[in-house]
């Protein structure tokens, strides 16, 4: 069994990360009724029980004991991490895993990347090394951060390049939360474009998530739960909406949205955490889905999100889940993959689903999905037998698809609008190590990324030349 380490940076990174840890512990408690520390738990948790022989990790009721998350928590203000340390997850982290400062990066990528990146470099590397040393076979780093602020975006991407330097062999999968157009951080276009260049150069895979999509999904779930439309039904035990991130009005603003991102992480890590008939290794994601190193943005979609009718017809419900994964309103960014070009696609299924169900659905959906001519069979599949709590099955699709292009074009447009007027630029250029060229190079990197997707888009519909047929003369 291999292990992974989660690195959560900034407010968003830490809030999303903690939703993941909370839900992961619930899942393990659901499956591991005796609370024995086993290989499944060891993938993301270490056992700190001094009586190692007891192997006991958690009580039958799911109460956590002797477990520490394989995580490093970084934020340049204290508020979020302090809150975590006062909450139900306080026992899951110890002080050696935490790194905080007091003032934050003030929504300034340069402060996070340059100032704090240099000041805390050694401490960050030290914490990463210690956490890595506690793994027998470290397979993957999961970095979680937002693009729009200063710490997650600036320091988060600095951490990414430190990971590459220190652990070049270990896969780096980044979950990046993109700001919505109405984001209240005025400098978010700068921060996002500056971060994009780092993601393009130093990540193995990026799972982009847009806050606007999360808002839309939550609004739809709320609407459905209130209108109680005939034929539709919300599963209230679902991990998507239960717990702190539920439909409860008293929750904090981002909780419900973060629950969805945490579910994305639960799904992608499920094969590493549990047994399955078709295990998908985390390394295989990049290996199979990324034909060109820079084009490693994998659009995630999650189902079920809105638990619909047809409870009594399992096959139809199962097939619906596969259809939904390709529909616009299940994507975690504002995108429509069916009308763009697929370079490759992974389907990660959880629960009681057969390989034959997977094959049947791929065959059924294939004709309606435009795949690049040289990779028509570019599917990667995984089956994990443990479903999410409250569901019989679930599906995460990761699409390497040119539909990410509009998100990037919108970012570029918003960046250019500010940059043309040199608005807020002085805040960045005052920072030691930050130069104007950082802006122009980041913009050039984004522009060429958009062009690369565009060039592929232009090949859509152009079939590969027919292989000459052998004619048999009579
Ligand atoms: N989905 C989601 N988005 C968040 C959350 N917290 C902040 N954001 C978004 O992230 C961006 C701001 O980044 P933060 O993560 O708050 O900033 P930070 O990394 O802490 O950086 P500084 O505060 O500038 O030091 C904005 O686009 C917010 O809308 C969260 O918990 N969930
Ligand atoms: Mg902050």
Notes on the protein architecture:
- This protein has 474 residues and is an alpha/beta fold.
- It folds into 2 domains: 3-48 and 55-293, Rossmann fold (3-Layer(aba) Sandwich), CATH 3.40.50.1440; 406-458, Helix Hairpins (Orthogonal Bundle), CATH 1.10.287.
- 42% of the residues lie in helices and 16% in strands.
- The chain is built from 15 helices and 12 strands.
- The chain has helices at residues 10-31, 39-42, 79-86, 109-119, 121-133, 151-166, 188-202, 211-227, 255-273, 282-289, 314-324, 355-365, 405-420, 425-429, 436-458, and strands at 3-9, 45-47, 67-69, 71-75, 98-100, 138-146, 171-178, 205-210, 299-303, 342-351, 379-384, 393-401.
- The strands form 3 sheets. Strands 5-4-1-6-7-8 form a 6-stranded parallel beta sheet, with helices on both faces.
- Strand 7, helix 7 (188-202) and strand 8 (205-210) form a beta-alpha-beta unit.
- Helix 5 (121-133) packs across helix 6 (151-166), helix 7 packs across helix 13 and helix 11 (314-324) packs across helix 12 (355-365).
- The longest helix is centred in the last third of the chain and has 23 residues, at 436-458.
- It is globular.
- Residues 244-249 and 308-313 have low confidence and may be disordered.
- Bound molecules: guanosine-5'-triphosphate and magnesium ion.
- Magnesium ion binds next to helix 1.
- Residues 54-276 form the Tubulin/FtsZ GTPase domain.
- One of its GO terms (biological process) is microtubule-based process.
- Belongs to the tubulin family.
- Keywords: Cytoplasm, Cytoskeleton, GTP-binding, Microtubule, Nucleotide-binding.
- One of its GO terms (molecular function) is GTP binding.
């Amino acid at each position: 069994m291999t292990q992974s380490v989660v690195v959560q940076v900034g407010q968003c990174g830490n809030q999303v990360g903690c939703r993941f840890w909370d839900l992961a512990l619930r899942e393990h408690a659901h499956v591991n009724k005796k609370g024995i520390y086993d290989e499944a738990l060891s993938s993301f948790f270490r056992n700190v029980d001094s009586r190692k022989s007891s192997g006991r990790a958690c009580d039958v009721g799911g109460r956590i004991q002797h477990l520490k998350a394989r995580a490093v928590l970084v934020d340049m203000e204290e508020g979020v991490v302090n809150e975590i340390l006062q909450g139900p997850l306080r026992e899951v982290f110890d002080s050696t895993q935490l790194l905080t400062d007091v003032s934050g990066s003030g929504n300034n990528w340069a402060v996070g990347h340059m100032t704090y990146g240099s000041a805390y470099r050694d401490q960050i590397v030290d914490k990463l090394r210690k956490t890595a040393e506690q793994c027998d076979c470290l397979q993957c780093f999961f970095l979680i951060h937002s693009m729009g602020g200063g710490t997650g975006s600036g320091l988060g991407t600095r951490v990414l390049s430190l990971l590459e330097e220190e652990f070049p062999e270990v896969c780096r999968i980044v979950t990046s939360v993109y700001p919505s157009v109405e984001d209240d951080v005025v400098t978010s276009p700068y921060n996002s474009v500056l971060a994009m260049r780092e993601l393009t150069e130093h990540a193995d895979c990026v799972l982009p998530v847009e806050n606007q999509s999360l808002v839309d999904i939550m609004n739809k779930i709320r609407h459905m739960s209130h209108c109680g439309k005939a034929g539709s039904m919300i599963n209230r035990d679902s991990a998507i909406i239960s717990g702190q991130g539920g439909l409860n009005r008293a929750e904090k603003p981002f909780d419900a949205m973060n629950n969805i991102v945490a579910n994305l992480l639960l799904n992608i890590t499920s094969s590493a955490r549990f047994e399955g008939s078709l295990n998908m290794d985390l390394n295989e994601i990049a290996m199979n889905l990324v034909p060109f190193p820079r084009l490693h943005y994998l659009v995630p979609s999650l189902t079920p999100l809105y638990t619909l009718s047809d409870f009594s017809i399992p096959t139809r419900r199962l097939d619906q889940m596969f259809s939904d994964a390709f529909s616009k309103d299940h994507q975690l960014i504002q995108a429509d993959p069916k009308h763009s070009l697929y370079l490759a696609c992974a389907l990660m299924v959880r629960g009681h689903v057969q390989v034959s169900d997977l094959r049947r659905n791929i065959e059924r959906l294939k004709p309606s999905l435009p795949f690049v001519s040289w990779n028509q069979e570019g599917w990667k599949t995984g089956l994990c037998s443990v479903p999410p709590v409250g569901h019989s099955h679930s599906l995460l699709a990761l699409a390497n698809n040119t539909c990410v292009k509009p998100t990037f074009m919108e970012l570029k447009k918003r960046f250019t609008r500010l940059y043309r007027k040199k608005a807020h630029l002085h805040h960045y250029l005052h920072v030691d190590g930050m130069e104007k060229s950082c802006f122009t190079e980041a913009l050039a990197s984004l522009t060429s990324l958009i062009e690369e997707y565009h060039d592929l888009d232009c090949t859509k519909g152009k079939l590969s030349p027919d292989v000459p047929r052998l004619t048999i003369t009579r």
